[in-house]
Amino acid sequence: MSFQILSLDQGTTSSRAILFDESGAIKGISQKELSLFYPHKGWVEQDARDIVEDTLNCGREVALKGNNIKTIGITNQRETTIVWNKDTGEPVYNAIVWQDRRTAETCKRLKAEGHEKLITEKTGLIIDPYFSATKIAWILDNVDGAREEAEKGILLFGTVDCFLLWHLTDGREHATDITNASRTLLYNIQNCEWDEDLLKLFNIPKTMLPKVKINTAHFGETYKIIDGETLPITGMAGDQQSALVGQACFEKGMVKSTYGTGCFALINTGKDIPSSENGLVTTIAYDIGQGPKYAVEGSIFVAGAAIQWLRDNLGLFGEAPESETLALSVEDSNEVMFVPAFTGLGAPYWDPGAKAAILNLTRETTKAHISRAALEAQAYQTYDLIHAMQQDTGLDIKAIRADGGLVANSFMCQTLADFVQAQIDIPEISESTALGAAYLAGLGAGLYKDEKDIADRWKLEKSFVPQISKENVEKGLRQWHDAVGRVRSK
Ligand code: ADP
């Protein structure tokens, strides 16, 4: 009898549950928008209780339509930090979201003290508020009594996956997976252990930390999804790594790039742990029982969010897809450059002080040029990442598997192929993130055999191949880099 797998996909803007059948086809979706709070400039928080409630409700709703659900996979927004009381399950503070910049000064100090080299060697990351460690320390230092309770072993830390698991299992399991652990700044990706030196440096008690498991481990059992029935949780990965698995990028040199609110590109580097000289981070891609595989990752904070901004803040169009019609209504952007550095610049520049700008405006500029420039910016930003990846890994990138809401925009995909000079492949199932967690859970439960079993299920929907020559791309790239130079803070 055919089986189904329930994937819980807890993202920054929404919590979702998707039911997949064994071929990877979608059989049901339930989704709930999640609020973000901005209590001060640069602070971004969420209610951790809503994260659990919404995800559980979506899971239950979709499971009602299910048939022979065998197991659950979890994937999640990464780095977002929750500290809770192990007796009550109550968070001691809101979830501090990955976008939060409140620890920028701490990071600056740690850099000035010369800690970055060691941290990068151990974790593959850089010192930036984006990652969890300084957020945990902030909670311990700013919530009344928190540090004392943490020292006594009463408080637990977890990223969103871990907090969900803890609640799904009624507090029985305090565990995370190796990919989520690798985004905390506390996990040594060379020996795959929490790192004592880093715990000391960030002043975080080890007793707070979850047990780290491979992505296809048995994470626990839950009664909370289907009344009276228990389901195992046998797959877990952070969203970008999960998408890498969902896109079946199992070979060294394969790249996936996701275009949602932000853009995240990962290249599988196999067993190699290259250290980036070009502003990217090295991270654990997955471990499905044969030891860890690694990836080099580039994160751009604003991708689809730029389209949202044109829609909501400037009112240039009513719906995101209209950006494509507008872009195609003009021959080119008339040299307009849109650098969407609304929350600073991520990889490869890492400039939190950069501000967004629309440049080269003239009297002829219309909303069509600006919309086109916003879509072209996705291609330019990706060019920067892919160029850095090629430099860091020495691998030649000829194809990219792309997904996320923005790939519905064919103009964006074609521009991407043109500027990156690579083939852009769009899969039939665009929900790569949720699908990856389902595949991991299926592997963990023994429903799938191996990587090949998954790779055989990946189906191409369409490809975009470069249509303009490298020479013609270069002028645009020069203008882009000039525009980036003008918005940088340093
Ligand atoms: P997330 O998972 O980060 O919430 P999604 O993958 O759902 O994001 O993608 C949503 C983003 O994609 C939004 O920012 C939206 O503006 C953008 N988007 C969706 N469809 C289109 C389109 N046809 N053209 C341009 N942008 C789009």
Question: Can you offer a commentary on this structure?
Answer:
The longest helix has 27 residues. The protein is of the alpha+beta class and 490 residues long. Helix 9 packs across helix 14 and helix 12 packs across helix 13. The protein is built from 16 helices and 23 strands. Helices cover 34% and strands 23% of the residues. The model has no long low-confidence stretch (mean pLDDT 95). A seven-stranded mixed beta sheet has the order 17-18-16-15-21-22-23. It has a domain of 233 residues: ATPase, nucleotide binding domain (Nucleotidyltransferase, domain 5), CATH 3.30.420. Strand 2 and strand 3 form a beta hairpin. The structure holds adenosine-5'-diphosphate. Adenosine-5'-diphosphate binds next to helix 10 and helix 11.
How does the major sheet shape up? 7 strands, mixed
CATH C-level class of the domain at 4-236 is Alpha Beta
CATH superfamily of the domain at 4-236: ATPase, nucleotide binding domain
Which radius of gyration do the C-alpha atoms yield?
A: 22 Å
Shape, principal axes of CA atoms: globular
Provide the low-confidence segments as ranges.
none
Residue fraction in strands: 15-25%
> Reading side by side through the largest sheet, how are the strands ordered?
17-18-16-15-21-22-23
Number of strands: 23
Binned, the helix content reads: 25-40%
Bound chemical compounds = adenosine-5'-diphosphate
What is the typical, i.e. mean, pLDDT?
A: 95
- The CATH architecture term of the domain at 4-236 is 2-Layer Sandwich
Please state the oligomeric state of the protein chains shown. single chain
CATH topology of the domain at 4-236: Nucleotidyltransferase, domain 5
Alpha plus pi helix count: 16
End-to-end separation in angstroms reads 61 Å
Structural class: alpha+beta
